[in-house]
Amino acid sequence: MVAIAEALRMSPEQRAELGSMANSQVLAHREVRQARALLLASDGVANEEIARRSEASTKTVRRWQTRFADEGVTCVGRIRSGRGRPPEIPDETIEAIVDDTLHTLPDPSP
User: Fold this and answer.
1) Domain 1-80 CATH (choose: 2.30.29, 3.40.50, 1.10.3430, 1.10.10)
2) What integer best gives the mean pLDDT of the chain?
């Protein structure tokens, strides 16, 4: 039996957009997972059950719901600044490598 919770409020347009995201084959996994979790929340599924189904903690599920209530669909899948590992390679180095890859040829081997 699935526990029932107060449903997360969303407009029909938001629900349609989340439905499209939840069924996507091309979006990042985190976006699809969050969209599915938010749709479950809008159906009144309890946070513990949403967490189990989405393989996340209940704290994370509550955070997704709070951000959605504050920011709407644009927050889905977005990683807040300051989260995650900082890049180890400077942007300038990456840009130089990409530029060299696209615009130069390696020296021929003897």
Assistant:
1) 1.10.10
2) 89
